[in-house]
Design brief:
With 338 residues, the protein is an alpha+beta fold. Helices cover 30% and strands 22% of the residues.
């Protein structure tokens, strides 16, 4: 139970599907086993305990179960009630004694204990956070005596969510300043806006790389022109003129000119992208909070020049607006190969 001020990041994880490493499913049946120490497996999580810890844990759960049965097995309660606690610790200690280090027996309290973990068959007592790549390809994330087993794609999904949360973090207790976001005083990692549905931004970045080497002749027949030719509206400039404007803007920024903040839409979590030009067909889910609204050229220039963070401005749009899926658009028009 907690009181959320703001959800910093959200991403939908795949549902448990048993044990299938080829599909990056590492969920094991519930089991309690003993080797270097006790292991309790709960799907893809493993909790480790020394023998005396396991005995105390099992006793506390057993006593909690008995008290719950005596209460009539309620499914939920209107007010929090504690049914179990660590041996030697007072039942009201969760709030009353949380700042204490020793219980009434003179032993270390559970919440200041260091529990065991295993690494390659050896036992360690430390507070390590460690990410390991296993020989068979899966990853292990160790935090204290917890181990999470997961695949590469799931790990990347989590890493992206952590990056997004880091960008959205504010000092503890500070209220979120909506005016600050609207005025462009917010920054995001550039890479967090170059999403799988925005291949057009990668085209712009690649165009700048080629231009640096060979000038305008190296890019005038490239993917940039092809993209704008395929995506050209009735009133748009000819693609070659748009390319020249892009190059001019790039040169101005190279000389030190400042760019206006990039405009983004805050969806608050995962959302859908739609296929241009009519934007009626939803094509893919975007498991991120922000999507680019305006400033693809500025974003590409800043990223190409080495800016890891870019200024953004959160804008309001009509409720039906959804970001374009220019990746599928480029595949359908032969600009990007699968």
């Amino acid at each position: 139970m907690g009181h959320i001020q703001k959800i910093l990041a959200k991403t939908e994880m795949k549902k448990p599907a048993g044990w299938n490493p080829d599909q990056e499913d590492y969920n094991l049946p519930f089991t309690v086993e003993l080797k270097e120490d006790f292991h309790i497996h709960w799907q893809d999580i493993r909790i480790e305990m020394a023998a005396e810890d396991f005995s105390a844990f099992a006793g506390a759960v057993s006593e909690a179960h008995k008290r719950w049965i005596d209460d009539g097995r309620p499914k939920k309660l209107s007010k929090m009630k504690r049914y179990g606690w660590w041996p030697g610790e007072d039942k009201d200690g969760f709030f009353k004694e949380r700042y204490e280090s020793h219980n009434k027996r003179g032993e270390l309290c559970h919440h200041v204990r260091v529990f065991p973990r295993t690494e390659s068959g050896k036992l360690f007592f430390d507070n390590l956070f460690q990410i390991e790549l296993q020989e068979k390809g899966q990853l292990h994330i160790h935090y204290k005596n917890f181990r999470w087993e997961l695949g590469e794609n799931t790990f990347k999904q989590i890493a992206s969510a952590v990056d997004e949360a880091t960008n959205n973090l504010r000092p503890a207790g500070k209220k979120i300043n909506k005016k600050e976001e609207r005025n462009g005083n917010l920054t995001l990692k550039a890479v967090d806006l170059i999403k799988p549905h925005r291949y057009d931004i990668q085209i712009r970045i690649d165009t700048l790389k080629a231009y640096d080497v060979g000038g305008i002749d190296a890019v005038k027949d490239g993917d940039y022109v092809q993209f704008h030719r395929a995506n050209r509206g009735v009133k748009d400039k000819p693609p070659i003129e748009k390319l020249k404007d892009f190059v001019r803007l790039y040169r101005v920024v190279q000389r030190g000119a400042k760019l206006a903040p990039i405009c983004v839409v805050d969806f608050g979590g995962p959302h859908k992208a739609v296929l241009p030009p009519r934007r009626r067909k939803e094509t893919m889910s975007v498991p991120y909070r922000y999507s680019l609204y305006d400033g693809a050229h500025r974003l590409a220039i800043l990223y190409h020049l080495g800016h890891t963070n870019v200024p953004v401005k959160v804008v309001s749009v009509r409720k039906k607006w959804k970001p374009p899926d220019y990746t599928t658009f480029c595949v359908n028009n032969g600009i990007k190969k699968l």
